[in-house]
Amino acid sequence: MRTQVLIIGAGPSGLLLGQLLHKAGVANLIVERQTGDYVLGRIRAGVLEQTTVDLLDEAGVGTRMHAEGLVHHGFELMFDGQRHHIDLSRLTGGKSVMVYGQTEVTRDLMEARAAVGEQTLYSASDVELFGFDGDQPGARCTVDGERITILCDYIAGCDGYHGVSRASVPASAIKTHEKVYPFGWLGVLSDTPPVSHELIYGRHERGFTLCSMRSPTRSRYYLQVPLSEQVGDWSDERFWNELRARMDPEAAAALVTGPSLEKSIAPLRSFVAEPMRFGRLFLAGDAAHIVPPTGAKGLNLAASDVRYLSQAFIEHYREKSEAGIEHYSARCLSRIWKAERFSWWFTSLMHNLPNEPEIDAKLHRAELDYLVGSDAAKAAMAENYVGLPV
Ligand code: APR
Ligand code: PHB
């Protein structure tokens, strides 16, 4: 088989890249290790920056997002039993974010790809990349028991943190930076109305809390838990009681509980791999970087990588220009490091560490106090939350 751009991974990065390339007439093929249903079973964050919304529109997959997504003009910070409104639109000259789950973004992209007849090889095992440091890259993989070879001009490694693409790069050519946080997020999805019409990020001596949503009837809540916790030890009742204990009295009274549809614990990590291009292999999305979820930058960063990568390929094929290809890694990393900084800062501010010295807790408390009392500090937070320019 032969294609122009071979995409490894059919998560949001790979699917969005495929759709943008299809629109521009660039041939592409996606190879995915899992089944489509498995990919859709993963539940992740759900806050889209305006530039991500714009890119999804450009890819022609925005219709359901605009119909069902919730435009949010602000969020709330909760600490010391009180909530403080962060008015994103006022602080950023009218910007907002879109609350629309990553699962739905992925579903829309999968349906759009099927509708235009572009090919995705699902359940492809033992994917092996070759030749990306020379002129003839490609991949071998096993599909339906048969070993196949795919030749291409370029490989886009969109295969997430555990994928084969980053792992195929010689160790001497790549540098990785990593910070693992000493706590996790226990998440619950439930068909209950959200406790507030805006997201609430809470700091509490019992741990961080996030009250989020997927729709007016579906809520998503998270609790900071020690990494040693087992999800099996958290009955629904225990989860709701702990959530209530970390809320201000008004929110605690308003909380509507119900059976969980999903419950899982996710670790928190900051990770960046540099550079993001190795000859004819390009990394994009979680394959190159991970942010802790506080601030929901993961999918948005994946989208900005894909924006730059699709532009680079389109410039190459249409205008015979290599500029986008040459600058891909530096363009991405400049935006990524700023989002890594924001996600690390917001995580550090809102969580308490095991055995945290009292002075650290006091300093965080003072920073929160400063933040909610200063328009300058709030504006800095808001411009990062709605997304820095692409
Ligand atoms: N071969 C083929 N496909 C693979 C391989 C492999 N060896 N390894 C992994 N994959 C697939 C995974 O099964 C997955 O479907 O690559 C896909 C990667 O998808 P994601 O992990 O969702 O990564 P990405 O598309 O970059 O999306 C980034 O996901 O984790 C969130 O916060 C993150 O929202 C961001 C988004
Ligand atoms: C979510 O809804 O899952 C979500 C929202 C905001 C975050 C993280 C996760 O910062």
From TrEMBL:
InterPro entries in UniProt: FAD-bd (IPR002938), FAD/NAD-bd_sf (IPR036188), HB_mOase (IPR012733), RIFMO-like (IPR050641)
FAD-binding domain mapped to chain residues: 2-343
Keyword Oxidoreductase listed: yes
Enzyme Commission number(s) of this protein: 1.14.13.2
Top-level taxon of the source organism: Bacteria
Keyword Oxidoreductase carried by entry: yes
GO MF term list: 4-hydroxybenzoate 3-monooxygenase activity
Alphabetical keyword list: FAD, Flavoprotein, Oxidoreductase
One Pfam entry name: FAD_binding_3
Descriptive protein name: 4-hydroxybenzoate 3-monooxygenase
Protein species of origin: Pelomonas parva
